[in-house]
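Revision sheet: structure tokens.
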Amino acid sequence: MITCAHVVNAALGRPARHAEPVPRNIRVSLHFALLGPPNSWIERSAEVVAWLPTGESFDVGDVAVLRLGEGLGGSGAEPLRIRADLNDRYNAAVQMWGPGHGRDLGRHVRGSLLGAVGKHRLQVDETVLRVFRVQSGFSGGPVWDPATSLVFGMLQAITTDGSAEVLVLDGALLERALAAVATARPGLALLHDHGEVHYDGSHYALRQRRLLRHGGGSPRAKYEMKVSVARFLNDEASRNLRHHARHPLSVGDPVRDIGLQAWCTVDDRTRPMDVKATKVRHEEINFDLCFPGSGLLTPGQQAVIEYRYRVSDEIWGQWYKRNVKPNTDRLSIEAYLPAELEPECWGMTSLPSETDLEPLSDVETRVEGDRIVYSWDRSAEEENLAEERRVRLDWFFWRRIPDSSECDDAARVLRQFGIRQLREPARGRESSNLPTRTRLIDFDSPHDRQLAVRVLAHLRRVAGWVNRYHAFKPQVSMGIAAPQLGMAYAIAIVRQPGSNDYLELVNPSVVERTDEEVLDFEGCLSFFDVRGRVRRPYGLRVRHRTAQGADRDVVLTGALARSVAHEIDHLGGKLYTDADRMPSDEAPIGVRQYRQLRDSDRFTPLAPPRRLTWRAQEHRDGARSG
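Predicted:
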């Protein structure tokens, strides 16, 4: 956000022409009176990130750049582009927000520029009244072209006597102020990193657009980028390597094989870029995008780099991932998927190591013709883009999901839902490759409170997909835990038998159990193709938190108690096939054999105990770190 430096001085109680920069630890409060509801306003705090005034020429450099602590998303505010190359500065028609008779908040004022008054300062008059008088509170407002909305400059009214006229600080000065922000950050500052993926049913077309500014150092002759693919996600690294050895990105000419094209726009001139492959692997290719001719991107210069390429769905998986790079001001991603394939799409974010995985908030959906578009857009003020993270959209298509009764490979389907699949869950294993320790949700933390809501919502969403894919019998209780989706949080949900309601468990622990136990079959969504018999307490008393943080104690018996114990095991990295869970004389059986036994009444679960004896639970279940 740009405003006049003297306005910031006034807000901080400093003299109007105080030229010393505002310390970075000092924040100013901003009231956006025109964005809030009637008789109210939106309030934000901000820090000064660029300061142009000097002691010798304060008025000529009366510009400050602020970074908001929180964005203005959903308020109706929109960014404006600056025009810094205005040649005709006399009689150019402009529009401003200025003082109005009887209107404290001002009004739209039409006027015209009347030429330069010294360096970077323009004279302006109101068209109707011919005299645009100074009134406090309007310095820092934009002066724009009513036809294109391009900003010519900013109003400046540093004096306050009733006869002084308002001047305009021109767009070139505002551009210099923004460049000062980028210069404060070394290297290339990404002002906006936008990516798109378009699917036509067999191929993915990827489009990338990056608005960047050279923040200092040596001129640059090229821009380095990388095309990286992974057909399978999550715990499928070795499978990916084998797959891409058979289906590489390139078999000869990398540029030709993926149809890579690139352009750059500098100083409003768009030209193609030379593309050179520098490192080629089966699943990854590095490229240099060279600026046209002998062109160089010099410090302080801004450029738009666009490139696009195309790969088959045999190579590209059902996901689109962006790595948040340092010095990113804004990141946006979009996935255009065919509506006829009935797509489901959701977002995840994580650290580069794929740890700290959590659902991505605010993925928006819209329809464009025969495509459903899923998008996510964040600025640095709204999201901590300074932290190096990965942002990902995942999807699958219901039209390509087989009927569960006809599918022998449930793992392939459930993997598309984001459920981690474990290989060879043989009895006697000592540990699984699910997250072995989960983090408790801290309800004193605003982030954790929001995180709990997002994780629970995503668990319900995935559970809904599972129930659509596989028709569970009414007496069956089905659950899913956050670690099964790669999220190391102490959160799980369990559907109550004969109901569509879910018991939501946050930070659960077993505090009491019955001495009476029941041996019965269990299944697991992380290896759905087998079933096994496990002896568990018939009754449990479980202490947990709700999504809102309230404490709850619940007494559970029968199938629901079994399912809750199963999910709490997952929170400690345990499986029902582990040596300390499944009896030594039991072993998992295939789901086909299990169904034959069930349908032929070859086995009958034990009858519920007539009397229950309760005792305190030894705290080994769901052991977790804080």
